[in-house]
Specification:
The protein is 68% helix and 2% strand. With 504 residues, it is mainly α. Helix 8 packs antiparallel against helix 19 and helix 9 packs antiparallel against helix 16. It is globular.
């Protein structure tokens, strides 16, 4: 960020006065003003760095904790299974009943992604997200009280329904606060709450294992009950803490809100935040083939991601560990994935490039699965391969989603496009739940083969998307700049506006 001298139009050019109120216009020049890298004037009482730190502290930690608890409540069934969930509920040994219980979560989770983001925009994020959070915490508690197979199926279904808006809603919200060049670190920190949830879930499950039999409940029941209670309490607190869109952020000054909106407008074009999303908008958005490519980018990574999240404790248990040792050994790969994802995000933002930072982690993940599919007698090497799987898969996923989301211009295209990518991608979760069957233990060759195939699909989709946006950027560079479009028409087109340039 640099300081430039610009002539002031008038002594009060920083503010326009009307009816006794000050109105800040970031497009007006000031003497000795501070400008960001897009040439937008920063309010005189602060700097871009300080203001972004203020936004970071309000937006990212809250949404990260929200998604950490969502992912924890979604995947803690894997930890519960180690403590005898299947036996206690009378699930038939050797059947696919456990896998079906995992699968049913994804049915409402996939179907209601786009409607959820529409409700998010209509009801405001702090209302919608905190309400959904309280509901999935309540359903998680109910999971600890079920008596049989039908009970676990019902609670998993409603858990998927309650959680449907968490991930796409949070990604959509983050994308409306940050420029494309600075978003990856924030997205990766938020997304890496999944890896922290995996690590935290393993530690918590190991501790809860000592509560086995307390008040007549087995340890697996306490996992659901305690983690659900924590989620409900946090949801009530988060009603007051979850940020809304920049246009509605009362914790920012008027001139700060104007600056945030101006810098986003300079980076991504106008957002059309004031207009509701219509059915016609949805139809128009799906006429862009890149929307479908973005779905496959995420879809291919979801299979190994959920395959690991749901079955890692069971895989690790085959290495000869006790239940509590299994929970503890599930922690380090998750922790390594968090560190690796943040490292990838740092370099991706520093170089302002995305494509290569999807391909490199994907190659790391493929290496891990290649070891697992070929080595079955060296448990230390197999355990090390789990590190590569988690690091690669969970390192690539936030880059894929950030890259696609931040290339969508405007509120309506971003809301629908983000929900579509996450919703369609999570169909891979259904595949993942049947990839690792009990009859394939302990080698799980079919499961590892399926994961490799879908990771390669993701890599192909990423390459296709890269070529698509590269060609479109070059074509737009060659085309005439002035096509006679009004500002309203440019806003409605979002990233289809001929002045828009995609990030590579």
């Amino acid at each position: 960020m640099a300081r430039h001298e610009k002539a002031s139009e008038s002594p009060d050019s920083e503010f326009r006065h009307g009816n006794g109120n000050n109105y800040y216009d970031p497009d007006l020049p000031r003497a000795d003003a501070e400008y960001d890298d897009l040439g937008v004037v920063c309010p005189s009482h602060t700097t871009e760095r300080r203001l972004m730190a203020k936004i970071d502290l309000r937006v990212i930690p809250v949404l990260s904790v929200l998604y950490l608890l969502a992912f924890l409540d979604r995947t803690n069934i894997a930890n519960a299974a180690v403590y005898g969930l299947s036996t206690d509920l009378g699930l038939v040994a050797g059947s696919n009943q456990y896998n079906t219980a995992l699968t049913i979560f994804f049915v409402p989770y996939i179907l209601f992604e786009i409607p959820s983001n529409i409700f998010l925009k209509k009801l405001k994020p702090h209302v919608w997200l905190s309400s959904c959070m309280f509901l999935f915490g309540l359903v998680t508690i109910c999971q600890g009280l079920v008596k049989g197979y039908s009970g676990i199926l019902a609670t998993r279904f409603f858990l998927g329904l309650a959680e449907t808006g968490m991930f796409p809603g949070s990604f959509y919200l983050i994308g409306m606060w940050y420029k494309r060049s600075e978003a990856q670190k924030r997205y990766s920190f938020f997304f890496s709450s999944t890896t922290l949830a995996g690590a935290f879930g393993g530690l918590l499950a190991a501790a809860i294992g000592n509560m086995n039999g307390m008040r007549g409940y087995l340890a697996w029941r306490w996992i659901f009950i305690l983690e659900g209670v924590v989620t409900c309490v946090v949801a009530i607190i988060f009603f007051f803490l979850i940020p809304d869109f920049p246009e509605e952020a009362k914790w920012l000054r008027e001139d700060e809100r104007a600056y945030v909106k101006a810098r986003l407008r300079a980076d991504q074009g106008r957002s059309a935040a004031e207009r509701s999303i219509s059915f016609g908008d949805i139809v128009t958005i799906f006429k862009d083939y890149k929307i479908f490519v973005g779905g496959f980018m995420y879809f291919g990574l979801i299979v190994p991601a959920y395959g690991y999240a749901y079955f890692a404790p069971g895989i690790i248990k085959t290495y000869g560990y006790s239940p509590i040792q299994t929970q503890l050994h599930s922690v380090p790969p998750w922790a390594a994935a968090f560190g690796f994802a943040m490292l990838v995000a740092f370099f991706s933002d520093a170089l302002k490039h995305r494509f290569l930072f999807t391909i490199f982690p994907i190659c790391v993940s493929i290496t891990g699965f290649a070891i697992l599919i070929s080595v079955h007698t060296n448990h230390n090497l197999e355990y090390a391969a789990l590190f590569l799987v988690t690091m690669g898969t969970y390192g690539a996923m936030p880059v894929v989603v950030c890259w696609f989301t931040q290339n969508l211009g405007g509120h309506h295209r971003r809301a629908v496009g983000t929900a579509w990518q996450i919703g369609f991608g999570n169909i891979g979760g259904i595949i993942a739940t049947y990839a690792f069957l009990s009859k394939d233990a302990p080698n799980y060759k079919p499961g590892y083969s399926i994961c490799i195939a879908f990771i390669c699909l993701s890599a192909t989709a990423c390459a296709t998307y890269f070529v698509s946006v590269l060609v479109q950027n070059r074509n737009r560079n060659k085309a005439p700049r002035d096509l006679g479009l009004t500002e309203w028409e440019k806003t409605e087109k979002g990233d289809m506006n001929p002045d828009y340039r995609y990030q590579l």
